[in-house]
Amino acid sequence: MKIILTHEVSGLGAAGDVVDVKDGYARNYLVPRGFAIRWTKGGEKDVAQIRRARKIHEIATIEQANEIKAKLEGVKVRLAVRSGDAGRLFGSVTPADIASAIKAAGGPDVDKRRVELGSPIKTLGGHQVSVRLHPEVAANLGVEVVAA
């Protein structure tokens, strides 16, 4: 099935790209979550608009991405969350929580969709998080989850 991506999807493409995927992947995952729309001739007009919006929010060069990476890796991120007696959290830490914690710690403004978690964060302690700044540049960030 031919689709137009409306958001960046790891391993598939960036917003505005027209890609071919399996029917079930598009129908059951990408389209319902708003990551893509079905390709039509009328949808080609949307591609130009999506690409314009992407250019505004995108980090333009690798040099700029490396500068932001240096700033990010210099920031110490502490996130206070509610937890139980055994150190397990009530819920989990989301990419949006991490993005707001980076901003609160004095780091650069990061879009929550660029924060990639290897697995859900459900315990207290130190965790490694990757922030995809550019297709070729990713910043590794240490996040300290503490009890509130």
Written overview of the protein:
The structure is a single chain. With 148 residues, the chain is an alpha+beta fold. It has two domains: 63 residues, Ribosomal protein L9, N-terminal domain (Ribosomal Protein L9, domain 1, 3-Layer(aba) Sandwich), CATH 3.40.5; 78 residues, Ribosomal protein L9, C-terminal domain (Ribosomal Protein L9, domain 2, Roll), CATH 3.10.430. It is 30% helix and 32% strand. The protein is built from four helices and nine strands. Strands 4-9-8-6 form a four-stranded mixed beta sheet. A three-stranded antiparallel beta sheet has the order 2-1-3, with no helix packed on it. A hairpin with a 2-residue loop joins β8 and β9. It starts with a strand and ends with a strand. The relative contact order is 0.16. The mean pLDDT is 86.
The helix content, as a percent range, equals 25-40%
Distance between the termini: 47 Å
CATH class of the largest domain: Alpha Beta
* Largest sheet geometry: 4 strands, mixed
Total number of beta strands: 9
Number of helices: 4
Rg estimate, integer Å: 18 Å
SSE succession: EEHEHHEEHEEEE
| Low-pLDDT stretches | none
What name goes with the CATH superfamily of the largest domain? Ribosomal protein L9, C-terminal domain
